[in-house]
Amino acid sequence: ALQRSARVLARGLRTSAAVRAAGPSFIEDTAPESLGPTEKMNLFTAINNAMDIALAKDPTACLFGEDVGFGGVFRCSMDLQKKHGPHRVFNTPLSEQGIVGFGIGLATNGATAIAEIQFADYIFPAFDQIVNEAAKYRFRSGNQFDCGRLTIRTPYGAVGHGGLYHSQSPEAYFAHTPGLKVVIPRSPIQAKGLLLASIRDPNPVIFLEPKFLYRSARENVPVADYTLPLSSAEVVQAGSDVTLIGYGSQVHVLRNAAALAKEQFGVSCEIIDLRTILPWDVDTVVNSVKKTGRVVVSHEAPVTGGFAAEISSTIQERCFLHLEAPIQRVCGWDTPFPLIFEPFYAPGRFRVLDAIKTVANY
Asked: Does residue 161 have an active-site annotation?
């Protein structure tokens, strides 16, 4: 049994190393000087900092979830219970439906609820509470009541050794639900500003955190309280030949692929980080596509029914006469998320590079 456990552990470590080698190289951004002094943070410490600010400035704010009291599996809530007390930062039973239901009740009674689902893969038991209760609360009451002060945080996506139950990207399920906002940051600077904006937004928000970047992404993050706009995409790299569209950790895959395309083919890529996929910034995408005429959309989630399909359809409707090549989708395969084959499942830089070559040569 010990030998078998050792073999499983070794295999997991080899898989993690392979995924890190094949995965995206994180590219730092620089915060605007107007936001003031900065401090080096990785993604999880930036999220911790955002929640610390929210709890300090809003006496009604509460943070809760499985193991949140001692810091959580990824340490995003480290020391927050010590600073703000066990009545505001606390553990819950192992019941995702209960966590979200409790958060809805808390928010409808005027408190700011920050719920953590330990892994996005386990958000599905709470699906009914999210899509049938939280998303519809305002509409069904004719705007007399709402649970807009609810934010549901959860880590999503590949991590190198998560397998089928700790690696999924479920954003498209929620992007189909009017009444929600779905936000996905790409970096520590973005995570802090977007999380504070989500917590303060008057609508329930699903905030998906790319766990691949929790520790590997490090930036100089402003220490002050600041927010970034929801439903506003960002052009992270200007270009003239091909538009690349993504969100979360996949933005860094696109940046890596764009650098290779410039080096190998002389192709100039414009990269758009959607940041929010519901409601998403159609205008920024359309303006870019009308300029380049060529598009690659990419995400980790499976290709069929993924959010790339919605983006592609909208581009086809709005930019048909400007397109110079068929839109390419570079996504996860239509299989359960594999363990040892994760490097082959993940839509890496070379798959994106092939798609760039395809549209550029069409």
From this structure: no
